[in-house]
């Protein structure tokens, strides 16, 4: 009965592909021919949504946030991390499939936009500014293809409940991104529907093509046969979907490992002790360097360094400093974690790196906020290179704290993953270089005193060391993990 249901579903897929192709071609000709009823309906929907959304700042902000899930930066990160993850696991065919499908979608939408040449909607109150042409929606097409291709690749390795969760999340994101493009007034309804239809057709075509493409070598490496683990796992994969790699290797953690926190309550207690000691040390240091409160003047050497750097400012150094500002800020840290976290799991085949990163970053944020509120030190009384400084106080530097925590965790992960000296040395040098660069930028820009930077190092260094201590594997688990890495390498 199960096999019959699978074959019945697979028989529907060609029909759905035909309907999607027909629907897109029909929309293409109607838009290209400037059919009046379609144009009037599109404009009515665009005007209606614009009237409903305009003037509601919270709703507009929410729409802008959601639409970024289908934007180029988000999808570029998603596909880049996904492809590199597959390459690390030596799933060459799956990586090539994901890369070709994503790049092909970008080419396809660019060509169709140029052929149709439809301008973007004109509404009473534009909510965002977008350049380029309108048909089809690149966000709608790229979102469906990007999330869809990763869903296809990792589908065989997921359990039934995880599959339902991933499928539901992917469908919800695709629908919401498409809606935001209409609500924000940058696409017509037919643009979004055409993007979905063309994306579905491209996703289906590439899946069929790669299902029957089985090279022996790819990028100079032998391509192992795609396997689905045991017979039960293979029976869960509909025959219409390509199994592009080894199911165990597609799982984040292919083999059972010791828990990232072998003794959770002991680890929590150790972290609480470390947190309290670090907070007390920082509060004492903050009181020492800043007197009794925010109105106290910093020490002469502390103030002199900041003032001297202001005198040394040049136009080109200012431009460099402005460019480096995001490196230790929220965007840079989030981007770093989004890249390091998944790839660390791919390399180590363990959840331990994610636990280390989570503990280190959450802990340093709480330490920073508490210390900043207690000391309440004013920022340097010099011309600031940045017009809008963060609302937090000067002591300690949040940028330096977050940067050191992230780069130190990355170095710890590298040390645990490999014994190669050049990789370990490179991780340490990178951590020192990036942290020093961020520290110099914060003092040069007049956002912090040198002692604020020193306090950030005092915060992030011991706290990251404490997180390393509680997440370190037992000797037996470390030996098992190293043997897995040697076999995978």
How would you describe what is shown here?
Residues 1-8 and 226-240 have low confidence and may be disordered. The chain is mostly helical and 489 residues long. The chain is globular and about 75 Å long. It is built from 19 helices and two strands. Helix 5 (92-116) runs antiparallel to helix 6, helix 15 runs antiparallel to helix 16 (398-417) and helix 15 (352-375) runs antiparallel to helix 18 (450-471). A two-stranded antiparallel ribbon has the order 1-2. Strand 1 and strand 2 (221-222) form a beta hairpin.
Low-confidence regions: 1-8, 226-240
Order of helices and strands: HHHHHHHHEEHHHHHHHHHHH
Which class of secondary structure composition applies to the elements?
A: mainly alpha
Question: Can you give the helix content as a percent range?
Answer: over 70%
Distance between the first and last residues' Cα: 42 Å
| Rg from Cα | 27 Å
Q: How many helical stretches?
A: 19
State the strand order across the main sheet: 1-2
Mean pLDDT figure = 80
Oligomer: single chain
Beta-strand fraction estimate? under 5%
Number of E-type strands? 2
Shape: globular
């Amino acid at each position: 009965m199960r096999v019959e249901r699978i074959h019945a579903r697979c028989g529907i897929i060609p029909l759905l592909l035909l309907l999607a192709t027909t629907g897109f071609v029909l929309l293409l000709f109607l838009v290209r021919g400037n059919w009046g009823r379609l144009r009037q309906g599109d404009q009515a929907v665009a005007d209606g949504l614009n009237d409903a959304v305009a003037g509601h700042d919270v709703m507009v902000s929410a729409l802008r946030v959601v639409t970024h899930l289908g934007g180029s930066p988000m999808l570029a990160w998603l596909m880049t991390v996904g492809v590199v993850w597959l390459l690390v696991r030596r799933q060459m065919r799956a990586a090539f499939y994901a890369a070709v499908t994503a790049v092909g979608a970008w080419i396809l939408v660019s060509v169709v936009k140029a052929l149709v040449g439809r301008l973007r909607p004109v509404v009473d109150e534009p909510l965002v500014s977008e350049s380029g042409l309108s048909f089809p929606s690149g966000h709608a097409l790229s979102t469906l293809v990007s999330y869809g291709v990763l869903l296809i690749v990792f589908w065989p390795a997921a359990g039934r409940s995880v599959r339902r969760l991933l499928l539901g999340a992917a469908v919800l994101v695709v629908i919401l991104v498409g809606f935001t493009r209409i609500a924000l007034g940058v696409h017509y309804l037919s643009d979004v529907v055409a993007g979905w239809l063309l994306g579905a057709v491209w996703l289906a075509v590439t899946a069929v093509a790669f299902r029957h493409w089985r090279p022996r070598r790819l990028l100079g490496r032998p391509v192992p046969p795609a396997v689905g683990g045991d017979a039960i796992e293979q029976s869960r994969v509909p025959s219409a979907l390509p199994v592009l790699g080894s199911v165990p290797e597609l799982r984040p953690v292919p083999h059972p490992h010791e828990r990232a926190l072998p003794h959770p309550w002991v680890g929590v207690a150790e972290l609480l002790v470390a947190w309290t000691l670090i907070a007390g040390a920082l509060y004492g240091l903050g009181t020492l360097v800043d007197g009794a409160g925010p109105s106290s003047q910093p020490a002469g050497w502390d103030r002199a360094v900041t003032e001297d750097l202001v005198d040394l400012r040049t136009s080109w150094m200012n431009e460099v400093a402005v460019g480096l500002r995001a490196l230790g800020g929220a965007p840079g840290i989030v981007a770093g974690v989004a890249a390091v976290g998944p790839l660390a799991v791919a390399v180590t085949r363990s959840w331990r790196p994610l636990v280390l990163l989570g503990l280190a970053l959450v802990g340093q944020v709480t330490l920073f906020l508490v210390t900043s509120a207690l000391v309440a030190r004013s920022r340097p009384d010099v011309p600031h290179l940045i017009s809008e400084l963060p609302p937090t106080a000067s002591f300690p530097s949040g940028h330096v704290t977050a940067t050191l925590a992230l780069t130190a965790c990355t170095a710890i992960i590298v040390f645990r993953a490999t014994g190669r000296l050049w990789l370990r040395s490179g991780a340490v040098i990178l951590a020192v270089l990036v942290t020093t660069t961020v520290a110099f930028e914060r003092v040069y820009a007049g956002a912090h005193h040198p002692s604020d930077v020193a306090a950030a190092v005092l915060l992030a260094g011991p706290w990251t060391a404490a997180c390393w201590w509680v997440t370190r594997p037992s000797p037996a688990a470390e030996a098992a993990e190293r043997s897995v890495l040697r076999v995978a390498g």
